[in-house]
Known about the structure:
The protein is an alpha+beta fold. It is 36% helix and 23% strand. It is built from 13 helices and 19 strands. It has helices spanning 3-15, 42-47, 108-121, 164-176, 202-222, 267-278, 280-287, 293-296, 341-357, 375-380, 390-398, 401-428, 432-438, and strands at 18-26, 32-38, 50-53, 67-72, 78-79, 88-97, 124-140, 143-148, 181-186, 192-197, 200-201, 225-228, 242-250, 253-254, 306-307, 309-310, 318-319, 330-332, 384-385.
Amino acid sequence: MIMTDVSTMLQKMKDDKVKFIRLQFSDIQGQIKNVAIPDIQAEKALTDGISFDGSSIEGFARIEESDMVLKPDLSTYSLLPWRPEKARVARFICDVYKPDGTPFEGDPRYILKNQLKEAAEMGYTFNIGPELEFFLFKMVDGEPSTEFKDHGGYFDLAPTDLAEDVRRDIVIALTQMGFEIEASHHEVAKSQHEIDFKYGDALKTADNVVTFRFVTKTIALMNNLNATFMAKPVYGINGSGMHTNCSLFKDGENAFYDPNAPLQLSEISKQFIAGVLSHTKSITRVANPTINSYKRLVPGYEAPVYIAWSASNRTALVRVPAPRGKSTRIELRSPDPTCNPYLVFAAILAAGMEGIKKEMQPPASANQNIFAMSEEERNQAHIETLPGDLYTANKHFIEDELLCKVFGSHVVNSINNIAKLEWDAFRTAVHPWEVEQYLTRY
């Protein structure tokens, strides 16, 4: 790190009256972690980094090799706007290193940076624009619940949308932290919301996703509400997704756009789509990482379950939204907001770039309502289905040579172990539904 940059940052923190600094990073599952240090330790943090025990972090290190070092990325500096001005708190997102100064191979941010570097070597930059949905539920007796805060519907407003003030407070806090908010609105389900922020390069966007979740939960708690990004918290209504819009740029131009091609889609875009579709079953493991994720991926609730692409059809897994031109992009509709964005974006990019390298071609686009097709019609169209549970998705993941290479053995083993533990706990648990169905019958 250049010392002039450090000096400039130290002066900025002094001018901002920063008294405490949060050094944040992501674990394997995408949960944001942090250590707080006083301002007197700022120079040490920015030059040498701050040590911590990696053995206590999910999927990081065994106890005999637990020493880790957090090194702040200066570009991620931001003040936490809800903290008092007389004792300002700043945060940095950090990269994780081993004591010998080499990057920690289990750091999700490092994995994404590696994929972006490979794409850059081919002349490409990768932009991402995610759309995160979430629920705002009431706190009951100080505990989180699934009791609706409001009974609004898609694009509703007060008095039906009783949470619009909270959503506004979230938008204000995000804006003060440097986000460029494009829209916020009520979603389809009761108490469900969406806030969209401007797309950007994949690393910055992944940082924004983990920040977005952290800020949303914090502001909700300040309003005696529980914000949850759980994929399907309530049976019988829509779950929460994280539709992920992707584009490649080369020499400042959108590489997915060709004004003279059918649908104005370049060969590069179709090859990228083909690569993503060919790995989508294994991408599902990281894009939909919980047992609960698969309660969302069922027909009838707007979530995609069929592996197909289309230039407009919202029932397809991958679609190409309008308009074309500088904003030409593909939208992968399967991820949910419980995912680790660093790993998901790395997986999408790796799969898409393989499609480009191998000049793969996607299947014919699906232009009709896939949900309305019979199983026989889908079979005739060669439309397959996403994995229906975490166990199956994990099996596809660990058999995917490309993603296993991209993530490395450390992360692959951690992801596999997490899936096995969660699936075994779920498989052996006795659900209230089972008691209701069988207790008096047998």
